[in-house]
């Protein structure tokens, strides 16, 4: 049963033009008539009514969240927390997946804007002035996480650089003098927004500069596991393998086991992220935990505050902590 | 810069009423004028233009996917595959999360319908005639997976009952005569749509009926780990612990390790789903694999076929296979 504006006009005893004015929130109609029309349209299940009502209220009570990946557990956790907080404020959340495709990211942003979402939270793969001005022109509040866009776009995350420095100092304090730093995403430098791996890398280098006794190698190869095996064999010094994310640390641990290299007796391993599946892995992985639920919650909270016209910080850092387990 | 229909009217040399007719796809306007107006509106970046154009074309090229959970890896994998297939056909995908909340599921469905998605794929928590008639009245093609709604709503999944029967026969073939069946979701029977655990349970019971030498206990407690420990201690017969999903099997394995019960020497464990994180777990878990990527892909493919007016099957079963590893 498709309801037309003509039927609404007949039921309300007004012209179709008046119905259009009400549904499209244009002037030239008194408030009582508008309300009557909206009520009848609603009762009839007139579908465009939702959009019309949204225009009346000036908002759709819908947020978009743009993610580049749902494989890494971090994003499932963050999304669950974001959604829960948004719901608490009466917002619906639409998630879209860009799969690290820069063109698709722009298409999805346009699509969400066309759908008149009230605000967008995103983990961007585009970068620099192009995305910056696109977001500014959109006129819609935006909050970013993981990869930062610029000083102009609010960003909720952790201080990756400082956290990675802390990790290196922790490794040094355990007596290691040799670190193999594994960060495959670094090879996308300049091609994609890799703010997070770059910040972690900066922290790693800064810490190594502060610790002259540490020798290190940075591994960014696609075949990083093979490189790792070669590097381990090159020296008698027991290495600590520091991975820029737990997902790499899990592959490293599995690979070392297959190659009969005992953890931590022959090589230490440390991750970053404290993803929830670590719970099931032996030996328990030493890593850096950050409150990803808090990031999801605060991103939603700040986005909604921004929609409501309040000022929000350009940068919010949540806490992190080393989780010492059995792999170092 | 906000573009109004007045500006479009001026640029096109027509009345605002004509612009409204064009944008809202109403009659009383010739095709050349309509096209001119749509073109100008498009060039000016007139936002409602997207919706207007969608109405002209009768479709928005957007699909909704309704999931009740993103923690279980199965859903991340399925979503990635669904999205990729939809993109291949030029569709955008909006994911919404119901968090197993039945009222929220209906709210999100309404929200997606208001947004005029062309079709909806869903993993339902509502059930029975209520959801059945809601979906029918929506007038939008729907495909379901995981939990089935009714014979009327297309369903893409595996034959859970047959798969679980196969699992039981496999366990029996390994010499086990005692099975502890762990399926915590069964306690929601009647309260929520738990089609998947119910089908698996039916398969379990049918197989046990076929195998009179097997003794079994079904555990559905919230504290199933404690119950398990008690049951293991009750008999000298080495049990096979068969879990209705890998996520429970992972918790079981971890718990047995903590309690110094060796797998498979003192207790066998088998899961179901073959989630990708099993890759990292010791001992490697014997489980049932089903092609969740294929389910995602075929759900998208069938949904799009249905949107295009083609008939699609009411039920599609993809394949499954026992993955024999080290835990039995």
Q: What can you see in these coordinates?
A:
The structure is a homodimer of 328-residue chains. The first copy, chain A, has 328 residues and is an alpha/beta fold. Chain A folds into three domains: 5-57, Orthogonal Bundle (434 Repressor (Amino-terminal Domain)), CATH 1.10.260; 62-157 and 292-317, Response regulator (Rossmann fold, 3-Layer(aba) Sandwich); 160-290, Response regulator (Rossmann fold, 3-Layer(aba) Sandwich), CATH 3.40.50.2300. In chain A, 45% of the residues lie in helices and 15% in strands. The first copy, chain A, has helices at 5-12, 16-23, 31-43, 49-57, 73-88, 102-114, 128-138, 160-173, 195-210, 224-233, 246-258, 292-307; strands at 62-67, 92-97, 119-122, 142-144, 155-157, 178-182, 215-219, 240-243, 268-270, 287-290, 315-317, 320-323. In chain A, the strands form four sheets. Chain A has a four-stranded parallel beta sheet with strand order 2-1-3-4, sandwiched between helices. In chain A, helix 1 packs across helix 2 (16-23), helix 1 (5-12) packs across helix 3 (31-43) and helix 8 packs across helix 9 (195-210). The first copy, chain A, is elongated, with a radius of gyration of 26 Å. The relative contact order of chain A is 0.12.
Summed up:
With 328 residues, chain A is an alpha/beta fold. Chain A has helices at residues 5-12, 16-23, 31-43, 49-57, 73-88, 102-114, 128-138, 160-173, 195-210, 224-233, 246-258, 292-307, and strands spanning 62-67, 92-97, 119-122, 142-144, 155-157, 178-182, 215-219, 240-243, 268-270, 287-290, 315-317, 320-323. The first copy, chain A, folds into 3 domains: 5-57, Orthogonal Bundle (434 Repressor (Amino-terminal Domain)); 62-157 and 292-317, Rossmann fold (3-Layer(aba) Sandwich), CATH 3.40.50; 160-290, Response regulator (Rossmann fold).
């Amino acid at each position: 049963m498709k309801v037309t504006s003509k039927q609404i006009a007949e039921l309300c005893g007004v012209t179709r033009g008046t119905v259009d004015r009400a549904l499209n929130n244009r002037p030239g109609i008194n408030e009582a008539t508008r309300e009557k029309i909206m009520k009848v349209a609603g009762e009839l299940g007139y579908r465009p009514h939702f959009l019309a009502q949204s225009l009346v209220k000036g908002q759709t009570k819908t947020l978009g969240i743009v993610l580049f990946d749902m494989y890494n557990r971090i994003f499932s956790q963050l999304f669950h927390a974001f959604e829960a907080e948004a719901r608490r404020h009466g917002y619906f959340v639409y998630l879209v997946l860009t799969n690290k495709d820069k063109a698709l990211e722009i298409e999805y942003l346009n699509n969400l804007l066309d759908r008149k979402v009230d605000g967008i939270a995103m983990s961007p793969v585009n970068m620099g002035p192009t995305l910056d001005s696109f977001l500014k022109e959109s006129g819609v509040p935006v909050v970013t996480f993981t990869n930062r866009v610029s000083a102009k776009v609010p960003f909720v995350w952790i201080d990756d650089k400082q956290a990675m420095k802390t990790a290196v100092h922790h490794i040094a304090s355990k007596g290691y003098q040799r670190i193999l730093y594994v960060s495959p995403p670094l090879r996308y430098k300049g091609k994609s927004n890799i703010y997070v791996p770059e910040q972690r890398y900066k922290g790693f280098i800064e810490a190594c500069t502060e610790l002259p006794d540490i020798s290190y190698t940075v591994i960014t190869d696609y075949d990083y596991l093979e490189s790792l095996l070669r590097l381990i064999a090159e020296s008698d010094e027991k290495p600590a393998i520091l991975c820029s994310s737990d997902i790499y640390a899990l592959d490293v641990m599995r690979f070392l086991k297959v190659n009969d290299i005992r953890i931590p007796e022959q090589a230490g391993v440390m991750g970053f992220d404290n993803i929830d599946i670590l719970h099931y892995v032996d030996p328990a992985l030493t890593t850096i935990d950050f409150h990803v639920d808090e990031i999801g919650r605060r991103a939603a909270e700040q986005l909604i505050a921004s929609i409501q016209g309040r000022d929000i910080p350009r940068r919010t850092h949540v806490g992190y902590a080393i989780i010492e387990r059995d792999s170092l």
